[in-house]
Specification:
repeat; 348 residues; alpha+beta; Glyas_Fos-R_dOase_dom; binds the ligand C[C@@H](O)C(=O)SC[C@H](NC(=O)CC[C@H](N)C(=O)O)C(=O)NCC(=O)O; lactoylglutathione lyase activity
Amino acid sequence: MVRILPMAASSSLHLSSLLHYSSPSDPIQRPPHPLSPPSRHRRIKTSKSTRMEGYNITACTGNMAQASTAVTEENALEWVKKDNRRMLHVVYRVGDLDKTIKFYTECLGMKLLRKRDIPEERYTNAFLGYGPEDSHFVVELTYNYGVDKYDIGAGFGHFGVAVEDVYKTVDLIKAKGGTVTREPGPVKGGKTVIAFIEDPDGYKFELLERGPTPEPLCQVMLRVGDLDRSIEFYEKAFGMELLRKRDNPDYKYTIAMMGYGPEDKNAVLELTYNYDVKEYDKGNAYAQIAIGTDDVYKTAEAIKLHGGKITREPGPLPGISTKIAACVDPDGWKTVFVDNIDFVKELE
Ligand SMILES: C[C@@H](O)C(=O)SC[C@H](NC(=O)CC[C@H](N)C(=O)O)C(=O)NCC(=O)O
């Protein structure tokens, strides 16, 4: 068994999760958006037509600087809400790609969408999900050669999968030898029928009983230390909506569903605050979510304006031309924004 140190994991993350973005550079005048974005964002824009005036405030001084900053912040907020955003995929590391692919396809009903091996960087990616990547939220598994075990930590919660019959799904998973950590039944303090299972690496999947849905892979649950701070960040810096907030005092937690459209049609980020828990160990297994944007440069500016920390300045990846920007939220959870046009070209 080989364990990797958090730092090693973090550097392999940069390579393995970013280098797969490769496509020709962004044209000056963009063609119509080829994605099928969520209902909220159907407007087609060009890079030039959305460019914001007064974005650079570094030349301003004194009161002027304050006035300019205020306007800029307003514009930034407006722009992130109008941007064509969608959760594209969630990236995490696994110790045995074939075992995980077998589990996700046979037990969870996902399809293997694509696989790519990067021998020079010693990793392989596999993309799996319930529909094509140009219109569905999917998982991006990373296998780093020779690394068969990771620490999932305590901050990562689970991935949510909507199924029509949780009991039947659990029976199937048991028959296939899968691990069920919470038997089917109504969620404590609520009515939704849920169950929890574990994949071969110990990542938890919550099965949620719902009617037919276009987006069965429906949640990424992360624990946060200050829910209001997180809600404000994801609203203002990321342009997400607070879709639902529910306090469960009997079980001492509050959840907030954040996303780019209604929960029944779009994958969402489920932020969980456990009373009095301010910090979590993040381990080295879970990596990040990727979100599509029409402009990584403005995305990064808006994140900075709202107190986010940019961990990779916006721009094309070296050697290839897909434009990305990366940041961490107030708890240190990472997100990569990917240029929408470049992302679609990658899939061609
Ligand atoms: C339907 C939707 O509201 C849920 O499924 S919430 C699931 C619920 N979440 C939590 O308890 C979060 C707090 C917990 N302390 C944590 O940090 O994970 C849950 O997991 N319920 C368990 C159950 O058995 O019902």
